[in-house]
Amino acid sequence: MSVLSTVWRHVWPSIPTLEFSAQFCQSKPLNTLIDIINTILSQHYGPIKTFFLNISSLPSLRHSVISEWMLFLSKNGVKDLTLHNTKNVPYKLSSFMYAIELERLCLSKCVCRLPGNFRGFHKLKFLKLNLVLVRHDETSILWMPNLLKLHFRSCQGLLSLENICSKTLSFASGTEVERLPTRLDNMNFVRSYIDFDDEDQVSSILRILRSTPNVKDLILVWSLEIIGGMEDVNHFEGAAYGAQEFNKLQKLKITAFRGLKPELLFVRFILRSAPLLLKTILLVDESVHESQYLKISEELMGFPRASPKLEIICKLQKQTNNTLNLFQFFITVLEQIDVVFCNISFVVKSLDLVMSSFNFDSVAYTMIEALSAIHVEGLDFASSMQREIWCK
Q1: CA-wise closest residue to 118 among 97, 145, 148, 91
Q2: Where does the FBD domain lie (predicted)?
Q3: Per-residue pLDDT at 165
Q4: In terms of pTM, does the model score above 0.85?
C-alpha cells in the first residue's frame, strides 16, 4: 500500500463536504447505494458542513432512510444542505430539520410542514426552492434576518414570508406571490421569468415590486418557447396601477422582447412610474423583422418617462442554435463540478471565454442558476455573472 493511500485512508472520513450526485446515485443498485451512504456517514468523524444528495433514485417507500441521514447531519454541524428530487413523489422534510442552523438550503420537489412554533432560519443566507409545497399554520413565521438571496420557482404555500431580509429575489411563473404580508426592505435585485400575456404573472411582478420598495435592478426573462398568440389587452388600466411608483428602481432589462402590446404597455407603465430609472435595456428577439424592430424603437423613444436621466437601449438580440447548445453544455459541466476537487481557475477562465464570445439571453439566466449551486468560500460566480450581464 502506498504512503498516499495510507494517508488518504485517514483523511477522507473527515472531509467536511459530501456530495452524492445523480450520476453517482443512479449508477448503483438501490440497496448498494443506501449501504454506501450509511457506511460513509457511520465512518465519518468531524463536522459535515456541506451535504448534497440527489434523492431521485430513492422510491418513496425508502424516504425514511433520507430522514435518518438528515437526523445524522443535524447532529454534525451541517450548514449547507441540498436535496435534489426529480421524481413525481416529493420528499417530506422531518420536523427536526427546522431546528438546524443552516446557512444555505436548496430544495427541489419537497414538502415543508412548518411547525406551529417555527420562527424561521435565523442564520440562513441563501434559500432556493423549486417545486416545493410549504404547509403552515397561523403561528408559523418564516423569519430569515440574514438572508442574502432568495430564489423560488413553481412553489405553493409561500404565504408567510415574514420579516425576510434579502438582497436578491428570483422567482418564476407558477409561484404563489398573491400575499406578501411584509415589505422586503433590504432586497435590491429582482429577476423573474414572465409571460406578459398572463395577467396573473404581470400582477405577481407588480406585487413583488410593491413589497420591495428599495429594489434597484429588475430583470424579466421571456421563456424560450412561446406557444400561441398574445391577447391585445391592457393590464394597466385599473386604478390600482395608476398610483404605483418605483422610487428606487434604477435598471430594467427585458430579454426576448417582441414589441407586442402587453410588453409595450408594461414598459410604458414602468417608465412613467420610476423617477430614478437610469437604464432600460430591451433585447429584441431575433424573430422580429428589422422593419418591426425600427418601429418598436421609435415607439419606445416616444414613451413618457419620470426620470430625466433615463437611457433606453433597444437592440436586436442575436442567438443561434450553436450558442444555445454551448450554453447548455457549459451548464451541464458546471452542475457536475465537485466543489472539493474542482480546478477553480479553469472554471473562471471558461466562464470568461463564454462571456466574451456570445450574447446573453434567457439561457444566461439559467446559467446563473447553475452557478448559484456552486458554493466555494469567497467566490460568488452568480453575482459576478449578473454584473457582467448588465454591461452587455
Answers
A1: 97
A2: 246-315
A3: 59
A4: no
